[in-house]
């Protein structure tokens, strides 16, 4: 089958982009031809002739940024100009997508969160217009939804709120919905009485990952972690829901100058750098300037994830909310112990229930007992290794490419 994937951006470290790459690998493995159209190729080399760049699909295109601003942040008195804009841009996107589908003789579409979350309203509506006109089968990979984001996608204009609720998620007869957690399954059943296929985030447990080498050890030296120091890893973007302030508090509570917290991601998705600046203030207030490292600020922006995980003693993952939590499974694959907050609505229901050995906290409260348990792992490399090996075997059983292959065969049969 010739499968066309539509995605706003790919090649970065957000969960949608990372999971899409895995789907592409497995879809190709089971014999499908995969065509990709995206608004932005971040760290992705466009060498494959099956890849097509359509700037209109980018979340950072002038069209998308203007509509987000006028819909949710700086609304005008009347929504008329915004509604006209969405209609016009969605028609342009529909036209581009239709040409792409026809030229590549695509049999089936895969919409990567573009039909679930209205972070690019015109793209979601453009996809809907394409599917309604052509009748082409489509699978929507729905990671998260507007009602899960508080007031982020709530407009002062009732017309815009109706536009969002009418088009996100994509609810037409010949759509198959893939959701990433059981909460999504329950939501579709209660809201729409529609069945879905749950496809958890996965990793390739047959490929070496996070293996220490002399080459990737140099990465730590370049950003200021000495050989005698102990790195803790926060392998996430810098956005508020990642709970990075709790990881910084942990460093302060451990009260050991040898502990270094290394934060991998950039703050491109942090509106006006508000959260990033709060973290910087916290670091200064706690006098941890020499113990917390923002790797992206050190000029280390494109390190392979495997190399990033290789020499960490343990990983911090104190998120408050996740659609799934790629960083958790990455830590398992890298055989690193994990200190985790019981993030909603997924961790206990879809991950923790499998019996992973972690230090688990609630509501991001670092109790004395939790900090003591974390310290035992940090200062006992042998124990850290045992925990890593144990969790790896569980991860291989529940979150491997083999599980993904079963799910994709079901969706694209």
Structure description:
- The chain has 413 residues and is an alpha/beta fold.
- It folds into two domains: 2-199, Rossmann fold, CATH 3.40.50.11930; 214-398, Rossmann fold (3-Layer(aba) Sandwich), CATH 3.40.50.2000.
- It has 15 helices and 13 strands.
- The protein has helices spanning 15-29, 62-73, 80-104, 121-134, 158-167, 182-192, 214-223, 244-254, 274-285, 305-309, 326-333, 347-351, 368-378, 381-398, 401-411, and strands at residues 2-7, 33-38, 51-53, 108-112, 138-142, 175-179, 197-198, 230-234, 259-263, 292-294, 314-317, 338-341, 359-361.
- The strands form two sheets. A seven-stranded parallel beta sheet has the order 3-2-1-4-5-6-7, with helices on both faces. A six-stranded parallel beta sheet has the order 10-9-8-11-12-13, sandwiched between helices.
- Helix 12 links the parallel strand 12 (338-341) and strand 13 (359-361).
- Helix 3 packs across helix 4.
- The protein is globular.
- The protein starts with a strand and ends with a helix.
- The model has no long low-confidence stretch (mean pLDDT 95).
